[in-house]
Amino acid sequence: MPDWKKLVSRRLAQLALDERERQEVVGELAGHLEEIYEALRQKGASRDDAIRGALLQVDNWNKLRQDIYVARTKENAMNARTSRLWVPSFVTLAASIITLVAFGFLGLQPGPLGSQPHHEEWSSHLVGGITGGSHVVNEYTVWLMALPFLGALGARLSRGAGGTLRDIIISGVFPALAWLTIVVVILSFAVSLGHGLQAVTAPVGPVGLITVLVVIPGVCLLLGVLVYYAAAKRWTKSAA
Amino acid sequence: MVGSGIKRGTAELAILSVLETGELHGYEIARRIEQETHGTLRFTLASLYPLLYRMEKRGWVRGEWQVGENGRRRRRYRLTPTGKKKVAPMRAEWSELFKALRQLAKVADA
ipTM higher than 0.90? Predict the structure, then answer.
């Protein structure tokens, strides 16, 4: 019997995979050719005819080498998790930040992300915003009103890429999760530098800060996700 | 002429379908498909392995080296949970397509 491994190895010598992976491919393809050769021999083919018959499996080794290389390396450049979860999540986050900044450019005073360097000021603005006691109420409220649409956008992107319900929800509420991480990191950092939590988060306190930056935006985003998801399911059913 | 996307789609469904019955190595996959389609669908080595590797990369199938009864090492493929979930929707999609094509053929014949 011919040395199929040697033959395949020689023909796939230029296969640009690491050596272990290349040997794995060589071994697998050689095994396949060996099976064909033996099947042909069992059917009564001569040794030469069986070799020729097996080699007919590949009419262009260069193309096969290229196809294998692409399949094993490039196919999944953006894997399912990236397209279903990470891309929609970061698009939603970026959109939420852009929206907030855009409101600032439109003449609205930014709240949490904005240009006011003293946290006491923006905190009180936010508190005022929530309780309706300040002009900043408008910016914060407008931003909150935009969030359901952004949540729906994240959900749409994730669903469009085939995301599961979990992916869809995370993609939609990702800005709130990002805010939570940022708040926790900043608060931990501040505390580790010797500042008290209350001093850092005055006048709203840590719970108030998390409520303003994470919980309320999160609820708005989730609302958008759920409305979109329900509408999309209904639309799919009626289309079917 | 059938486009490469359609060819790849049918080929993927054929592979997923035969793997639904159990683990198989590459040669067995090709032979099983040929037998079950009475020779209508045939895979050469060159057409089968790039597709299998692509499906493995997507997480639809998983290959593992095993030593057979004859002492030979073969890489056997099985469906992953993701691959199993793919079969029914893919089959439904192709069934829809063939139904639509049959409808068109009827219209053309009429």
Answer: no
